[in-house]
């Protein structure tokens, strides 16, 4: 275990002005706080925060970050408190340590929800101070290095979380070395056989090829020197997880891989980068389609480099990355290389002239992900945002938009602005009209066509690739559904006030919202539309002196004009309409069918068709269910009169819309009887949607047939035609 003076020396190598007293105090405090605690390996627990701090010294981080690493588990796993740490080490370090503390007291059912809430807390802390992320990544790296000591049932979960969240997060922050080690450690745990197979094959290939890497390094360096370019050349084999990913992505075997070797050419200036590229392409044949210029177009994580693949010595495919030494530092250490904090006291030093693009991306992502998503949605969308494979597209004005691979113009539109995505109706890709579901490619110029009348279809959520687009579509869909429920609830509320003889105004409802535990009148109406609030409660909230009628006094319910439902207890349900009244009342809710403007569905086991007298039953969370008034199923709602709605058909006579009905046909059991029955329905233009057959006896069987018809007249014509068939004994309609 590293001793106190050794830690101080590690920091002093890159920061001669380090606060030795602060580091000593933190070392002693953390060691005493963890006391006799042991890790799963049997080592003192304090060895873990000490190793985390050592990893961060390799990144040359400031004193406050090193101290936070030493203390990062104290609040969570010891009796230490934030107040005590703030008193001893200052507000800044206490805030960093608190940001690294998991949320323990969560009343959540699923482990996924708990994981998501802990991740949300971590990301929000990172948004305030990026050093939280650096400590967390170092913490995860050491945990992965010691994963073999973790109980077996937890290893896969930790490794999968590392692969899903922390390795991509390190990549997004440009910390490639840390990302690659995290990926390999997770890969070794999750797919041990594949990991062993790849490492064995790479070892065998290394022995077969001999010192090929050293030969290419030497030849490349000499060639550059002859052209007057001073360069450092580093060669290495690809990492196991990178090899596996390429095999999976391209569906090829190990033998088909031709670029297992990668080389970095480090030069002194951007001009030398392009000169070196010219030398490489002159010396060796380029592999078409494998050149990328990330210097003129940097990645969102600030990564800059030239990438090319050539057919080098021994006819080997060789990947080359050409960059300056400053670019190399950012490529290896990512956001840590920006060194935003250099003050020896641990206080933030002078900021760089511009915020890191990677950190700016992270802050924007966190802002997008924190807009009212459920824990599970937040976790899903965070994973989507962290995947690092990208395409780069442009707006017509030249703005660069970075998107994940397989992204569509829908994702592009939401990346430009949420309002652009919500109003998108079409697009042009490179000047040509294209579907919104097209897969975008590097360099595409995308123009989004918008319309203020457009709202995003819910199906876009399954098409979009980015978390921002999916979240925005989901919010817009919820808003549209909420508006539908609010419109329905407003009509229900108006009728309820009229029924009891009380004047209705939205202002009165708005003033009563505190008593209904809602923020606005719109929220109240939406809750009524969903069946979450009873209209009696709203009336009582607006008029506290109003006394609702007793249940026995509520035997009648208005449906049209002065008409009422007469709900009698017992087995029979009767419907009474006074003379001269009509169901075509102005305040009745129009029903256009399943695809109408309101959340509407038809009753199971019979449905309803235009021409039936109908009633709507409000079901919380589902909308309105339409029943024919003669349905026996309505008996089940006699004790809930507040759920009954006055509804009417609003169907054009020329409409070709079909509606569900169910009939029971009793027919002779003889060859061809089913064909005759199906023929009778088809001849009349009916559509069979479902069929069940039951044998009642050896001579007769019963068919339960779900048919789709235009209206009641159409249904009656089908029933009459069936009754005229010799094989048919009886036909009756089912009404629930």
Automatic annotation (TrEMBL):
Q: Which keywords label this protein?
A: GTP-binding, Nucleotide-binding, Transferase
Asked whether the UniProt record includes Plastid among its keywords, one would answer no
GO function terms (MF aspect): GTP binding; GTP diphosphokinase activity; guanosine-3',5'-bis(diphosphate) 3'-diphosphatase activity
Q: Tell me the GO BP annotations in alphabetical order.
A: guanosine tetraphosphate metabolic process; nucleobase-containing small molecule interconversion; response to starvation
Q: Where is the HD domain?
A: 45-144
Q: Which reaction does it catalyse?
A: GTP + ATP = guanosine 3'-diphosphate 5'-triphosphate + AMP
Name of a matching Pfam family: HD_4
Q: What GO terms fall under cellular component here?
A: plasma membrane
Q: Is ATP-binding one of the keywords?
A: no
Enzyme superclass (EC): transferase
Q: What is its EC number?
A: 2.7.6.5
In this chain the ACT domain maps to 662-736
Secretion signal, residue range per the UniProt entry: none
Family per UniProt? Belongs to the relA/spoT family.
Query: What this chain does, per the record?
Result: In eubacteria ppGpp (guanosine 3'-diphosphate 5'-diphosphate) is a mediator of the stringent response that coordinates a variety of cellular activities in response to changes in nutritional abundance.
Q: What is this protein called?
A: GTP pyrophosphokinase rsh
Q: Which organism is it from?
A: Xanthobacter flavus
């Amino acid at each position: 275990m590293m001793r106190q003076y050794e830690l101080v020396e590690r920091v002093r190598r890159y920061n001669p002005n380090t606060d030795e007293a602060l580091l000593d105090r933190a070392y002693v405090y953390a060691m005493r706080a963890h006391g006799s605690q042991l890790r799963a390996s049997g080592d003192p627990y304090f060895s873990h925060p000490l190793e985390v701090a050592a990893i961060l010294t390799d990144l040359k981080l400031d004193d406050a970050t090193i101290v936070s690493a030493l203390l990062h588990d104290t609040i969570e796993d010891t009796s230490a408190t934030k107040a005590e740490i703030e008193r001893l080490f200052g507000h800044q370090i206490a805030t960093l340590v608190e940001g690294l503390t998991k949320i323990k007291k969560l009343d959540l059912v699923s482990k996924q929800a708990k994981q998501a809430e802990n991740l949300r807390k971590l990301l929000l802390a990172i948004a305030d101070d990026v050093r939280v992320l650096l400590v967390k990544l170092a913490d995860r790296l050491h945990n992965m290095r010691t994963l073999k000591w973790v109980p077996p049932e937890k290893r896969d979960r930790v490794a999968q979380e590392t692969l899903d969240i922390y390795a991509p997060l390190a990549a997004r922050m440009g910390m490639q070395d840390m990302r690659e080690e995290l990926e390999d450690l997770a890969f070794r745990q999750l797919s041990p056989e594949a990991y062993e197979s790849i490492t064995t094959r790479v070892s065998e290939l290394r022995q077969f090829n001999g010192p090929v890497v050293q030969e290419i390094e030497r030849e490349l360096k000499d060639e550059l020197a002859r052209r007057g370019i001073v360069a450092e050349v580093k060669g290495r084999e690809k990492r196991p997880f990178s090899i596996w990913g390429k095999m999976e992505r391209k569906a090829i075997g190990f033998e088909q891989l031709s670029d297992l070797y990668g080389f970095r050419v480090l030069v002194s200036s951007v001009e030398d980068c392009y000169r070196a590229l010219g030398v490489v392409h002159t010396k060796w044949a380029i592999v078409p389609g494998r050149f990328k210029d990330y210097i003129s177009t940097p990645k969102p994580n600030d990564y800059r480099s030239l990438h090319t693949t050539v057919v080098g010595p021994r006819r080997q495919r060789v990947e080359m990355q050409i960059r300056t030494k400053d670019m190399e530092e950012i490529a290896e250490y990512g956001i840590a290389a920006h060194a935003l904090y250099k003050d020896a006291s641990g206080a933030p030093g002078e900021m760089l002239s511009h915020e890191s693009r990677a950190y700016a991306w992270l802050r924007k992502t966190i802002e997008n992900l924190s807009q009212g998503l459920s824990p599970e949605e937040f976790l899903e969308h965070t994973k989507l945002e962290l995947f690092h494979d990208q395409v780069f597209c442009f707006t017509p004005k030249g703005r660069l938009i970075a998107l994940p691979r397989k992204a569509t113009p829908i994702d592009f539109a939401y990346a430009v602005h949420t309002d652009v995505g919500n109003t998108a109706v079409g697009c042009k890709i490179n000047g040509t009209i294209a579907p919104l579901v097209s897969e975008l490619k590097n360099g595409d110029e995308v123009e989004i066509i918008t319309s203020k009348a457009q709202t995003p279809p819910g199906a876009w959520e399954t098409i979009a690739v980015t978390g921002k687009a999916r979240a925005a579509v989901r919010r817009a869909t919820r808003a549209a559904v909420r508006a539908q429920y609010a419109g329905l609830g407003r009509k229900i509320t108006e009728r309820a006030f009229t029924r009891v003889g009380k004047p209705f105004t939205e202002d009165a409802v708005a003033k009563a919202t505190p008593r209904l535990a809602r923020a606005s009148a719109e929220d109240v109406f939406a809750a009524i539309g969903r069946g979450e609030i009873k209209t009696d409660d709203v009336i009582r909230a607006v008029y506290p002196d109003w006394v609702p009628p007793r249940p026995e006094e509520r035997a009648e319910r208005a449906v049209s004009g002065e008409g009422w439902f007469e709900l009698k207890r017992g087995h029979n349900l009767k419907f009474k309409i006074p003379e001269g009244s009509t169901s075509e009342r102005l305040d009745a809710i129009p029903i256009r069918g399943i695809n109408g403007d309101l959340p509407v569905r038809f009753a199971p086991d019979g449905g309803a068709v235009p021409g039936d007298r109908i009633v709507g039953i409000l079901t919380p969370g589902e909308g309105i269910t339409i029943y024919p008034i003669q349905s026996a199923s309505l008996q089940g709602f006699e004790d809930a009169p507040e759920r009954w709605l006055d509804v009417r058909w609003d169907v054009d006579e020329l409409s070709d819309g079909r509606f569900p009905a169910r009939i029971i046909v009793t027919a002779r059991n003889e060859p061809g009887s089913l064909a005759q029955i199906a023929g009778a329905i088809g001849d009349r233009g009916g559509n069979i949607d479902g069929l069940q057959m039951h044998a009642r006896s050896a001579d007769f069987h019963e068919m339960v047939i779900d048919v789709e018809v235009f209206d009641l007249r159409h249904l009656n014509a089908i029933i009459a035609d069936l009754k005229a068939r010799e094989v048919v004994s009886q036909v009756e309609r089912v009404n629930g």
